[in-house]
Design goal:
heterodimer, A: Non-ribosomal Peptide Synthetase Peptidyl Carrier Protein, Chain A, 3 helices, 51% helix, B: four-stranded mixed sheet
Chain lengths: 80, 310
């Protein structure tokens, strides 16, 4: 597990509405971990911890569906 | 200076409560309430039209303003659910008010139509005189279209709100109003001809949350104000959870956020104008105070306005 994924998982655990799946590629929506309103809380928590504002045009649910996708997005931002 | 000379609204009498929806969709009433904050919605009677609701709201606003329809310089109606493709709801209202010769037109936008109509009226009234602004929607027949989906069926209700925007000074002034659109995610909330309302709820909520926050933040910044300078916030009554999230993110005290969606549901483009009319009738627009309005809707569009009261 990458350190970015660890950080994402930790942010998710702060707002999760159900147990967070062990697999990084499990759908957080299907598992009931975050609902429509929880998604905004999750993004807010990520922004706080990573110190990055997710631009409005990047706010698509698919990008935040799994821990792996979220970690990949923040890693890509870091690489610039 | 631009003033609002009068407010009015009209809600149909029939009620759809959570018990009926609970039975239809096999979900708990408590789930509907917690997911939306909505307890009841109003519903038009058979044969009752969006034009009927719009005209009644218009007459109430004219009475509140102590004006005659012949004083009007224009009519602007925000709606996503006109009775027909054309002519618009505005034509029906103009006919019923018997005021030929003034411009009357619809702004065909769902949820944000009321605020766009208000902004358009503020821009027009200096040239045309008092503008009748209406937000009117008949959502329940749309929600009856198949496939009927619980996530949207539980949200919407019918109604109309109205106000008269006039040039000059008055007890209620519009100090600032801005609107904006961005079609990047426009397909996330749409309704094709004859089809059901289609909503990608996650995308809509993400965008609504951000745009409502930025609309209010930018409005306050432009006017050198902070949330604590505002006495009452009136948002498009979309979903109580959304209002709580936006209010929380902006640091707004919950008691400063006007809520009537518990009784009427989401009345789309009518909701902001109904909220304004109810707040006015309840005496919440107190002299020496300020209100901020904000809405978000299909398109996607958003905006905010600053009102002050003398």
């Amino acid at each position: 597990m990458s350190s970015t994924a660890d950080k994402v998982r930790s942010a998710l655990e702060a707002v999760a509405r159900a147990p967070v799946p062990a697999e990084d590629d499990a759908s957080l929506f299907d598992a009931g971990v975050i609902d429509s309103f929880g998604l905004m809380e999750f993004i807010g928590e990520l922004e706080k911890r990573f110190g990055v504002r997710v631009p409005d045009e990047e706010l698509t649910p698919r990008k935040f569906e799994t821990i792996a996708k979220v970690a990949a997005w923040f890693d890509a931002r870091k690489r610039g | 200076m631009t003033t609002i000379a009068g407010f009015g609204h009209c809600l149909p009498e029939d009620v759809i409560d959570n018990a009926a929806l609970s039975a239809e969709f096999g979900v708990e009433e408590a789930w509907i309430l917690s997911a939306t904050g909505i307890g009841t919605r109003r519903c038009v009677a058979p044969g009752e039209t969006v034009g009927d609701l719009a005209a009644r709201a218009a007459l109430a606003a004219l009475a509140d303003a102590e004006m005659s329809a012949t004083d009007l310089g224009a009519i602007v109606v925000g709606t996503g659910t006109p009775d027909r493709q054309f002519p618009g709801v505005s034509a029906e209202v103009q006919k019923r008010l018997a005021v030929p010769g003034i411009p009357a037109f619809d702004i065909h936008l769902a949820s944000i139509g009321g605020l766009f109509a208000l902004a358009t009226a503020a821009a027009l009234c200096g040239q045309y005189g008092p503008v009748l602004v209406i937000g009117a929607e008949v959502m329940t027949p749309v929600m009856a279209r198949e496939p009927r989906v619980k996530e949207t069926a539980i949200l919407f209700g019918d109604g109309a709100g109205a106000c008269i925007v006039s040039p000059g000074d008055g007890a209620v002034t519009i100090d600032d109003i801005r609107i904006a659109s961005d079609a990047t995610f426009s397909d996330a909330l749409r309704m094709d001809f004859g089809g059901p309302l289609v909503m990608d709820g996650r995308t809509v909520i993400l965008q609504a949350n951000r745009k409502l926050q930025s609309a209010i933040s930018e409005l306050l910044a432009r006017n050198g104000l902070s949330p604590s300078d505002i006495d009452l916030f009136l948002f498009h009554q979309a979903n109580l959870n959304l209002l709580k999230q936006v209010g929380g993110a902006l640091g707004i005290s919950p008691e400063k956020v006007f809520v009537n969606l518990d009784r009427y549901g989401n009345t789309s483009s009518a909701s902001l104008l109904i909220a304004m009319s109810e707040a006015h009738a309840a005496g919440l627009f107190r002299p020496g105070t300020r209100s901020a309005l904000a809405a978000f809707g299909a398109g996607m569009g958003w905006g905010a306005a600053l009102l002050s009261f003398k």
